[in-house]
Design brief:
Helix content is 6%, strand content 45%. With 356 residues, it is mainly beta. It has one domain (16-349): Methylamine Dehydrogenase, Chain H (7 Propeller). Strands 1-26-25-24-23 form a five-stranded antiparallel β-sheet. Strands 2-29-28-27 form a four-stranded antiparallel β-sheet. A four-stranded antiparallel β-sheet has the order 3-4-5-6, with no helix packed on it. Strand 19 (231-237) and strand 20 form a beta hairpin. The termini are far apart.
């Protein structure tokens, strides 16, 4: 008799999504290593003055990757991240907790979003409705805004600022009672194209390129600058506003309106060091300490050190098409792509300081 031979069980086959993400991670690792370690190895990856970009780290769990679903926008505040996905839903991650929200019935599709200071995500829909994504679920507020309204986080506040097509700036106040809208700028000459807020004021750019600021305490808006080209993105860190103007990063000094309400002359725009980025720069993020700016330029990611203009460029995620980015902390980027339903992590590499 032949000896019994046990037939080995077939190992489980990895899913296609896992294989695709694993291969993408390997390719990204190879390209990003070049970007961070050797600035002259390839024209697609450059680094200067000791500044580099690390190997992109793929989304945490590739086993549940959703094939064909990407991210088109990101917003963050504190430890909460929100991402608008290509399937119309919104990913919300707070610490290790994660949830995906679908738009409530009859509210319209999710369009733009901001994360409030308490971690609640505020969304404007295509029907001009305001939706709060709370731990208990999505809640539609009994308030209406223009369908083109854009929200902006007010740091450490439950409120958000809203800029609209009619040129108005409003504040969504989420007090202990029902939420309400308060006018900051009742109306304007041109639609609001981009805005950002601090605790006491909002800085916004009209579609005609004029950049203004207005105090939440009241009073007329104050003109800061008239760039030659339209401004697509605004960020504010401390007393400085950063605007992306036709491929150039421009820095504006913005003292508090409370101390400058009588100043009639516009502020003078000051280009950042080596400010030229690229005409097709489509996204801007500024680190919370104001030391770095990051851009999506075509299919590449670029980081610029604002003090001296040193830059690093990586195309490690080019095959996945970057769409948006935010700073998770002062030295880590979260990068959205059209191919992934969760963001990649990219570390900014700087020379280690030698202890004295």
């Amino acid at each position: 008799m032949r000896p019994d031979r046990s037939i080995p069980r077939a190992l489980p086959r990895p899913t296609l999504a896992v294989l695709v993400l694993a291969i993408a991670g390997l390719l990204a690792s190879r390209e990003a290593t070049v970007a961070g370690d050797d600035a002259t190895a390839t024209p697609d990856a450059r680094a200067t003055a000791g500044l580099g970009l690390g190997t992109p780290v793929p989304p945490a769990d590739p086993a549940d990757a959703e094939e064909g679903v990407g991210l088109v926008a990101l917003a963050t505040h504190g430890d909460t991240l929100a991402g608008l996905r290509s399937d119309g839903r919104i990913l919300v991650r707070t610490g290790a907790s994660e949830r995906v929200f679908a738009a409530p019935a009859d509210a319209g599709a999710f369009r733009v979003l901001a994360v409030a200071g308490d971690g609640v995500v505020v969304v404007v829909t295509t029907h001009g409705r305001l939706v709060l994504l709370e731990p208990g679920g999505a809640r539609v507020l009994p308030l209406a805004v223009q369908r083109s309204a854009k929200p902006a986080t007010i740091p450490d506040s439950r409120d958000v600022a809203l800029g609209s097509e009619n040129g108005s700036i409003r504040r969504l106040v989420r007090g202990d009672r029902e939420a309400r809208l308060e006018d900051v700028v009742p109306s304007g000459d041109e639609p609001v194209g981009a805005l950002a807020a601090t605790a006491d004021r909002v800085v916004y750019a009209r579609l005609d390129g004029v950049v203004l600021e207005a105090s939440f305490a009241g009073g007329p808006p104050r003109e800061l600058a008239r760039p030659a080209r339209a401004v697509s993105v605004v960020h504010v860190v401390g007393t400085k506003a950063f605007v992306l103007e036709g491929g150039a990063l421009v820095t504006l000094d913005t003292p508090s309106p409370a101390a400058a309400t009588t100043r009639a002359a516009p502020a003078t725009p000051r280009p950042s060091t080596d400010a030229r980025v690229a005409p097709d720069a489509s996204a801007l993020a500024v680190s919370r300490d104001g030391a770095f700016a990051a851009f999506v330029v075509g299919d590449a990611i670029e980081v610029r050190r604002l003090a001296d203009g040193a830059s690093a460029v990586s195309k490690a995620l080019a095959s996945r098409t970057p769409t948006a980015l935010v700073f998770a902390d002062d030295r880590t980027l979260l990068v959205a792509t059209r191919a992934d339903a969760r963001p990649w992590r990219v570390a900014i590499q700087t020379p280690a300081r030698t202890p004295r």
